[in-house]
Amino acid sequence: EACARWDEEREAEFRAESERRGWKIGTMMQPLRLAVTSSKISPPLFPAIRLLGIRQSLERADRLIGELEKLPSLVPEK
């Protein structure tokens, strides 16, 4: 596991990755928020991750990714 807890450094890395990709922060936060809290609207995401714990948060994110991978692609294959 890359980190045992979610702290300000992890939050900064998350924001930097969003910026590196040229994405608005919400592009990464909304799917993670849905995975972690099961809601589009929640308390602030990063404190929620700290409360829940990184392990549980990652498990929830992995579960959401698994469910999304089951869906048919909206992008036509070339």
Written overview of the protein:
- The chain contains four helices and no strands.
- It has one domain (8-69).
- Helix content is 65%, strand content 0%.
- The longest helix has 16 residues, at 54-69.
- α2 (25-37) packs across α4 (54-69).
- With 78 residues, it is mostly helical.
Largest sheet: none
> Averaged pLDDT, please?
84
Q: Helix and strand succession?
A: HHHH
Shape descriptor: globular
Attribute tags:
78 residues; 4 helices; globular
Write the layout of secondary structure elements.
Blueprint: H1 8-21, H2 25-37, H3 45-52, H4 54-69
Helix pairs in contact: 2-3, 2-4
Summarize this, please?
With 78 residues, the protein is mainly alpha-helical.
